[in-house]
Write a structure and sequence with these properties.
The radius of gyration is 31 Å and the shape is elongated. The chain is built from 14 helices and twelve strands. The chain folds into two domains: about 210 residues, no CATH class; about 140 residues, no CATH class. Helix 10 runs antiparallel to helix 12. The strands form two sheets. The chain has a six-stranded mixed β-barrel with strand order 3-4-9-6-8-7. Strands 2-10 form a two-stranded antiparallel sheet. It is of the alpha+beta class and about 350 residues long.
């Protein structure tokens, strides 16, 4: 989403930012673009236009929003969006009679790269739509139905010409930032320093609130699952140690009779519990990291892309985080296991040494 739309949208004020399409264009301002691009944390500022339309391929018709871009947009493959085909042939003069569709739309139209389609451009000020025959010059794929089913790319000058705008008219700027967590902060700085009414700003969280709410819900699920796993681990370890202590009550009684201090006896069980935890952590790390590497290279666990916006479970391993988790688990388990170790103090010498 951030690659396709940037992190921040600068457009005239729109009471419904999720509609994306701004009702009125405004003039491109090279000075404003340069000032925003020079702000700390901003990586790019790109103008765009948007136009609703209908694509016809034989008897099949699809509603679409056509995003007009210039050559600075950069239609090259990256980790977020995959492109295929030649893309749009931007020219120094004139405009490209080409359109770049998503793989989803291309499949629904039963077309392939190189075919032509009729595109009806809808203009509320005109009684009839304007029609152009455009060549499918390539495809893209994001894995997000909100984008793949609704948007296509074309030359920005084509949309300007169809809309009877001059070459400076645009619908907005998309601003990309290095750290998406600072989007709100940077957006507010842009608004305070450089924008005048009716210009406004919106972050992707404002435009696609449901997606980010879903991501927050997934994060909460993660915390709940981790807590449940920790509770189960503590119960299992405590039970194992408790059984170990009960099986060695005679040994505890003998050690007490020989005069070993209670603290030293407890240390025996503490060291044993730490050894159990350490073995479990080492085996768990080997198996877990090995499985993560297997998934990273083979993608054996797929995901329904329509629900999760990705084709497989992604893996990112950071060595210091793995080591920090291992150390934290070891310390946590050792401290928790102090509870069953306290039972050693309550073991009676008389009962443990009683002979039948």
């Amino acid at each position: 989403m951030f690659v396709f739309w940037g992190n921040i949208q600068i457009t005239p004020y729109n009471a419904n930012p999720s509609s994306i399409i701004s009702p009125n264009p405004f003039d491109y301002d090279a000075v404003l673009r340069k000032e925003i691009k020079q702000m700390p944390g901003v990586t790019s500022v790109l103008p765009y236009v948007l136009k609703p339309g209908i694509i016809q391929a034989g008897n099949i018709m699809e509603g679409i929003k056509i995003k007009g871009i210039d050559k600075d947009y950069g239609l090259q493959s990256n980790s977020a969006i995959s492109y295929s085909g030649k893309g749009i042939s931007f020219q120094d003069s004139g405009y490209a009679m080409q359109i770049l569709l998503s793989e989803t739309t291309l499949s629904r139209l039963n077309k392939k790269i190189g075919d032509s389609v009729l595109v009806y451009f809808i203009n509320p000020q005109q009684e009839f739509p304007r029609v152009r025959r455009l060549q499918i010059s390539g495809t893209y794929h994001t894995g997000m139905d909100e984008i793949d089913k609704n948007f296509a790319f074309s030359d920005i000058r084509l949309i300007q010409r169809i809309s009877n705008w001059d070459e400076k008219a645009i619908n907005g700027y998309q601003v990309a930032v290095a750290d998406y967590k600072k989007s709100d902060e940077i957006a507010n700085d842009i608004y305070q320093k450089y924008l005048q009414p009716p210009m406004s700003k919106n972050t992707m969280q404002d435009i696609y609130p449901t997606i980010f709410s879903w991501l927050d819900l997934m994060n909460r699920n993660t915390y709940i699952i981790l807590i449940i796993m920790a509770v189960v681990a503590v119960i299992n370890l405590s039970t194992a140690l408790l059984i170990f202590i009960l099986e060695r009550t005679n040994m505890v009684g003998i050690l007490k009779t020989l005069g070993m201090p209670m603290g030293e006896i407890q240390k025996i069980f503490l060291y044993h519990s730490a050894l159990i935890s350490l073995k479990g952590i080492l085996w768990g790390t080997v198996v877990g990291v090995g499985f993560c590497l297997l998934q990273s290279y083979t993608h054996i666990i797929p995901l329904p892309e329509s629900a999760y916006y990705m084709q497989y479970v992604p893996i990112k391993l950071i060595a210091w985080q793995v080591l920090a988790i291992d150390f934290g688990v070891l310390v946590f388990c050792t401290l928790i296991l102090m509870v069953p170790i306290m039972i050693v103090r309550r073991i009676s010498i008389i009962n443990t040494l009683r002979f039948k």
